[in-house]
Amino acid sequence: MVQGKACVCADHGAVAETASAGGCLMTNTSSINALSDALGTLLRRPDLLSQLTSDAKRRLPRRWDD
Protein backbone atom coordinates (compact mmCIF):
# COMPACT_ATOMS: atom_id res chain seq x y z
CA MET A 1 0.00 0.00 0.00
CA VAL A 2 2.92 2.34 0.51
CA GLN A 3 3.21 2.29 -3.28
CA GLY A 4 -0.46 3.31 -3.65
CA LYS A 5 -1.61 -0.11 -4.82
CA ALA A 6 -4.73 -1.94 -3.73
CA CYS A 7 -4.07 -5.27 -2.08
CA VAL A 8 -5.78 -8.45 -0.96
CA CYS A 9 -5.11 -9.33 2.66
CA ALA A 10 -6.24 -11.38 5.64
CA ASP A 11 -9.64 -10.68 7.16
CA HIS A 12 -8.47 -11.41 10.71
CA GLY A 13 -5.80 -10.44 13.21
CA ALA A 14 -3.42 -7.50 13.08
CA VAL A 15 -3.46 -7.41 9.28
CA ALA A 16 -7.23 -6.89 9.28
CA GLU A 17 -6.86 -4.10 11.84
CA THR A 18 -4.38 -2.33 9.59
CA ALA A 19 -6.35 -3.06 6.43
CA SER A 20 -9.55 -1.61 7.84
CA ALA A 21 -8.14 1.88 7.23
CA GLY A 22 -8.65 1.35 3.48
CA GLY A 23 -6.93 0.17 0.35
CA CYS A 24 -7.42 -3.55 0.99
CA LEU A 25 -9.88 -6.21 0.00
CA MET A 26 -9.98 -8.50 3.00
CA THR A 27 -10.55 -12.23 2.61
CA ASN A 28 -9.86 -15.57 4.25
CA THR A 29 -6.22 -16.02 3.27
CA SER A 30 -6.12 -19.63 4.41
CA SER A 31 -8.59 -20.56 1.65
CA ILE A 32 -7.32 -20.79 -1.91
CA ASN A 33 -10.91 -20.42 -3.13
CA ALA A 34 -11.44 -17.24 -1.11
CA LEU A 35 -8.14 -15.81 -2.40
CA SER A 36 -9.07 -16.69 -5.95
CA ASP A 37 -12.50 -15.11 -5.53
CA ALA A 38 -10.98 -11.92 -4.12
CA LEU A 39 -8.53 -11.60 -7.01
CA GLY A 40 -11.34 -12.35 -9.47
CA THR A 41 -13.46 -9.66 -7.85
CA LEU A 42 -10.73 -7.08 -8.44
CA LEU A 43 -10.44 -8.18 -12.07
CA ARG A 44 -14.19 -8.04 -12.65
CA ARG A 45 -14.81 -4.84 -10.72
CA PRO A 46 -12.58 -2.04 -11.98
CA ASP A 47 -14.67 0.38 -9.92
CA LEU A 48 -13.73 -1.43 -6.70
CA LEU A 49 -10.08 -1.66 -7.75
CA SER A 50 -10.08 2.06 -8.47
CA GLN A 51 -11.64 2.86 -5.09
CA LEU A 52 -9.20 0.65 -3.19
CA THR A 53 -6.29 2.18 -5.12
CA SER A 54 -7.48 5.68 -4.24
CA ASP A 55 -7.84 4.66 -0.60
CA ALA A 56 -4.34 3.19 -0.58
CA LYS A 57 -2.84 6.36 -2.06
CA ARG A 58 -4.46 8.47 0.67
CA ARG A 59 -2.99 6.41 3.49
CA LEU A 60 0.13 7.76 5.10
CA PRO A 61 2.81 5.28 6.09
CA ARG A 62 3.05 4.80 9.85
CA ARG A 63 6.30 5.01 11.74
CA TRP A 64 7.38 3.26 14.91
CA ASP A 65 7.08 6.50 16.88
CA ASP A 66 3.44 7.09 15.77
Query: How far apart, in Å, are the first and last alpha carbons?
Result: 18 Å
Characterize the main sheet: 2 strands, parallel
Number of strands: 2
Could you tell me the mean pLDDT? 89
- How many distinct folded domains? 1
* Shape field: flat
| Arrangement of strands in the largest sheet | 1-2
Oligomer: single chain
Task: Give an overview in words.
The chain has about 70 residues and is of the alpha+beta class. The chain has one domain. Helix content is about 50%, strand content about 10%. It has three helices and two strands; from the N terminus they run E-H-E-H-H. Strand 1, helix 1 and strand 2 form a beta-alpha-beta unit. It is flat and about 40 Å long.
How is the secondary structure organized here?
Layout lengths: L6 E4 L2 H7 L4 E4 L4 H13 L1 H13 L8
Parallel strand pairs: 1-2
List keywords for this structure.
66 residues, alpha+beta, two-stranded parallel ribbon, 2 strands, 50% helix, flat
